[in-house]
Design a protein that fits this description.
- By secondary structure, the chain is mainly alpha-helical.
- It has one domain.
- 83% of the residues lie in helices and 0% in strands.
- The longest helix has 41 residues.
- The N and C termini lie far apart (67 Å).
- Keywords: Membrane, Transmembrane, Transmembrane helix.
Length: 123
């Protein structure tokens, strides 16, 4: 029933623009990964060991964006399954925001612990 729904041409234009922008975000994230990998090999130190976790998180974010962009583009390029393709895009965005949420929580906690640890060392 809902699987045969088709978005209008104007709505598909919005999806096409969003797919292009999301694809750009994925490409820019992969560029950041490449630059970090290059920096990792040239400036490796014990403090850079967390870079591996950093790169893994960034890579997963890029994959979520590429998958969402692909699904959004399918909304525009195919007929008969717009709702399914749109739902897949939303699932990928949900994965990204779930990951972002926990990355932010970890960032806040690690910053707080680092600050408290530095106060304890100096005091």
């Amino acid at each position: 029933m809902a699987q045969n729904y088709e978005f209008t041409t104007e709505q598909e234009k919005i999806f096409a623009d969003l797919a292009k922008n999301v694809r750009f975000v994925g490409i820019s994230i992969l560029t950041i990964i490449a630059l970090k990998i290059i920096g990792f090999f040239f400036y490796f130190s014990a403090e850079h060991t967390l870079l591996i976790v950093d790169l893994l998180v960034i890579f997963i974010i890029a994959v979520c964006h590429f998958s969402a962009a692909k699904s959004l583009q399918k909304v525009v390029d195919t007929e008969g399954n717009d709702i399914d393709h749109f739902t897949n895009a939303i699932k990928n965005f949900n994965r990204f925001y779930f990951l972002y949420y926990w990355a932010f929580v970890i960032f806040i906690l690690s910053t707080a612990f680092s600050y408290l640890f530095n106060l304890g060392v100096k005091g």
